[in-house]
Amino acid sequence: MTGNDQIMVSGRVDRDGRLISADPRLLALQISAGGEPSGEIAVPPLFAVIRLARTLNVPISRTIIVADGDHDMELWVRAVPEAGAIRLAIGGWVEILNEGTNPAMAAGRARLSSQLQGDGRWQCDLRLVLTDMSADMNEALGIENGTGAPINRLFRLIEDEHGELPLLVALADGSDHFRQPVESRALPGSRGCLIGAATLGAQGEVTGYAGTFIWAEPRPLQAGRPQRVDPSPPDAPAQPFVERLDKALRSPLARIISEADTIKMAREGDLDPQYAGYAQDIAAAGRHLLGLVDDMADLHAVESPDFTIPTEPLDLSDIARRAASLLGVRAADSKVRIDAPSEDEELLALGDFRRALQIMVNLVSNAVRYSPEGGMVWIRAEREGDLCALIVADMGKGIAEDDQTRIFERFERVDPTEPGGSGLGLYISRRLARAMGGDIIVDSAPGKGARFVLTLPAVPESVTE
To answer: Can you give the pTM of this predicted structure?
Structure first.
């Protein structure tokens, strides 16, 4: 097969990665790799993309390099999960010349390999809080230690050529990798790039991202002592309590989780399965405790007398879809479906994107947790006069009228014996909603499920016309 053909090849595989149907070119690639026409995909990079799409249950797009006879081919692959199968679309088919006969290409690859080693390693959770930063990355940025700080405290995110922020797009869409242009806040005017890939938990869910940092050329000159980074959230006042909380708990927990994940993902045969199980339990417990730390930091922020949230126009329908996407794996594991607003729906309100998404993730997460197996969670977007509303309805056991006020208080839960969070989620969510000029209300009865309604001020129609 010779490259540079501008064609798209299609195929379908079952959930075990066995070919159901394939265009002739994909079938030829399968056979040349030693596979059977109806057997498991025998091309390792392609099988890895299929496995990731199956695990995350979201579409995955990736460029791969495969061996095809006596040369390599660069392919663009998109794997889309469907009912009982995964649909493949494969383009590119660009032949990669042998480096041994092309010194210029060999030199170029050597430069690229050197570049991809980067100026440091990093890892973050789904809240975009850095859980690990290598010493060389701290040194490159001219800071003492960025672990425990939100990414946007160290970097200003820059839009790519499509006008998007790839890191936020990856977070919302469940993408498995991104390349985010950034500018260092410690070294204004100095730009670089965060290259990241998804990290997965025990059930295949995305738990965060990890990757490298690369300076754009020319690299900045650093002078003076490293700066100290305040790891508190951007909208939280710098107060001793939050600083002590981060130093005493967040950074150590983040390091424990990172090390446990490393042990858990050791190659099969390199580690006794019993110890891998211990590492999985440690990582899960660490994430639970880290969630409590995050709740305490948010609690401290929303209870500050001068706590305010700047607002701007945002699309609540889009936020609902993003929340549903973030919780898709958890819902699938619980055999619960999430019915979110369609792609063509739009509902413009005034609020803060990050805080509104935080609220919706909490409401939808609760709905999934308390829904029965085979149940459905509905998210609807409506405008009521000068207010916009997102309605989250579930098929759970419902909430008694006497409990409907209590659940919005600190550390309160309807049934403390059930597994769940800290009892702070709804309290913090309502405080956040009210700080943006809205509210959260509940409508429920025992045995009839629950409806939680987030309201925010609508963007005036004169502005949208």
So the answer is: 0.47
